[in-house]
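testing teh design pipeline on a random one, pls ignore if ur not involved
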């Protein structure tokens, strides 16, 4: 079977705190590593989705409602469900990687980087499905 867990692929997180959230694979490890001897991926996703906006809303209201909250996490492949979609968001690999997750201040910086990239993508109006809450 071919490898389909590739960077920029949209996945659904199935277990844990972020269950039901959409995420993008930043880096995948099919074979695993010494500390994690199973297939896993570093994912960046949306914790709080942007809210619905209409034409009549004020600029301040629009700004408030288009904000989103992100997360960066290493997840086992068993807890990820791949989708047919991919989002080409270029996340800086120097800022967002597995080593960064150990230090809280660097992790916060990585989340901020992901948030900036995803909000930028949201404002272009592309990949609308990715920025909508999953109904289940």
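output:
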């Amino acid at each position: 079977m071919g490898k389909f867990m590739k960077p920029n692929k949209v996945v659904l997180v199935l277990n844990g705190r972020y269950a039901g959230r959409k995420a993008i694979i930043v880096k995948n490890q099919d074979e695993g590593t010494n500390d994690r001897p199973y297939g896993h991926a570093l994912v960046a996703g949306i914790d709080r989705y942007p809210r619905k906006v209409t034409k009549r809303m004020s600029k301040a209201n629009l700004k408030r409602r288009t904000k989103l909250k992100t997360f960066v996490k290493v997840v086992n492949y068993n807890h990820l469900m791949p989708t047919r979609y991919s989002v080409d968001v270029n996340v800086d690999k120097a800022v967002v990687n597995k080593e960064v997750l150990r230090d809280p201040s660097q992790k916060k910086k990585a989340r901020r980087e992901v948030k900036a990239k995803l909000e930028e993508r949201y404002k272009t109006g592309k990949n609308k499905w990715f920025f909508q809450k999953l109904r289940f």
